[in-house]
Design goal:
single chain, mainly alpha, 2 domains
Length: about 110
Amino acid sequence: GSLNAGLRADFAMLYTKSLLDFVSGIMFTATMGIGVIGSAAFTFFFQGGLVLLAEYVAPFLSDEVIAEISSTGCLLILAIGLNMLNLTKIKVLDYLPALLVAPVLYWIVY
């Protein structure tokens, strides 16, 4: 969503994700306490940074590389969902570097 917003000025996915984050944040705050609100600030600055950074990395990102990054992100989101359903115990944070490795592997292979 952040890359779409920064590269194509298409904010639809970012708005949708923000709404989902807001709703889940309310539920998690009610369940786990006020500390969850701190993650909202981190998410805001992280995603905002990605939107601003997208302008500078645009020359290096082809449609195929963006597709690879998006696919990797979708797999990470799937893992988060499976963890939330208590079906798995995947340590998703350990796989975040895959978002950087996927484009590098693409450039090496192609």
